[in-house]
Design brief:
By secondary structure, the protein is an alpha+beta fold. It contains seven helices and 15 strands.
């Protein structure tokens, strides 16, 4: 048979877990990672799509049983190795993971695995609706790794420069996404897990409280000052359920929250360079108001 008619045989995937590093077929991977690194290891994904609610990205490698879901920033916090169809994932791989996982040099029986934590990442069995057999093994950034956090990191300090006064909390959040996460001009970059460890007035338990707004987190963003001299940086607003600002407001949000909706376009007056807006969390009137103000606006 001619070579060009032969199917490329999938390479055998070997995942080796060490305390200070993760190796996949000899390539060291650290989290957060990115699309380019995964392509280097696994090749181009066989399927690409976006979730219905959060509009986050899904990449699948069918021949390896690999499923990856990540936000629009491109930072990939982990991926899943699919073992069965017993789940509710969207656009999942059509084959199961058949590779090998090692803890140092000891092969792991991933059907018996519960959870193993390492310095940068964690392996965890994923089950669906209380079933004992796992549908996947998740390999993700270890959110419980404790690093020393400066005592003043999330203290909001008084500034001498003029600040923007917002009328609408949802609009402010959209601006924070652009300045803090997209352009990295507004610092510190807020991290919900880190903030929960840093906060000392009470214990914030994200596992219990992460399904809804946390008052201290919401108040932080309400109090956060945005200097007027950054207003000219805003040329576009792109609301997306996978935006970091929303992921850092509610840890286990389902993408259908309402409390961060933009209810008024009044704050657009502060941003003279704003020319384009894509909305997914806003009241109907906001779309019309922004278009009437000469800002091209559409639903995502």
């Amino acid at each position: 048979m001619l070579n060009f008619l032969k199917k490329t045989k999938p390479k055998n995937i070997q995942i080796k877990c060490y305390e200070a590093r993760l190796e996949i077929n000899g390539i060291v991977l650290t989290f957060p990672t990115n699309y380019k690194t995964l392509v280097e290891i696994f090749g181009e994904p066989s399927k690409k799509s976006r979730t219905k609610l959060t509009r986050s990205y899904i990449n699948c490698w069918d021949k390896y049983g690999l499923y990856c879901n990540y936000a629009s920033s491109g930072n990939i916090l982990g991926f899943s190795l699919i073992l069965s169809k017993n789940h509710s994932l969207e656009n999942f791989p059509n084959q199961f993971f058949k590779g090998e996982i090692f803890d140092s040099n000891k092969k792991i029986n991933y059907h018996e695995l519960t959870q193993i934590g390492f310095e940068n990442y964690v392996l965890k069995k994923m089950t669906y609706q209380g079933k004992k057999k796992p549908y996947a093994i998740s390999i993700r950034l270890n959110l419980n790794t404790r690093k020393e956090i400066p005592r003043d990191k999330y203290l909001i300090k008084e500034q001498n420069e003029e600040k923007i006064t917002f009328k609408d909390f949802g609009f402010k959040l959209a601006i924070i996404q652009e300045l803090m996460y997209n352009k990295e001009l507004l610092k510190p970059k807020f991290n919900l897990n880190e903030f929960a460890l840093w906060y000392k007035k009470r214990k914030i338990n994200l596992e219990k409280e992460g399904y809804g707004p946390i008052k201290e987190v919401t108040q932080y963003f309400k109090d956060l000052t945005i200097p007027k001299n950054l207003a000219f940086e805003i040329k576009e607003i792109y609301q997306d359920g996978g935006n970091e600002i929303y992921l850092n407001l509610i840890r286990f949000g389902d993408g259908n929250e309402k409390y961060w909706d933009i209810e008024s376009s009044e704050d657009a007056k502060h941003f003279e360079n704003l020319k384009k807006v894509s909305l997914c969390y806003a009241k109907e009137n906001v779309l019309n108001e922004l278009n009437e103000a000469g800002i091209k606006t559409e639903w995502l």
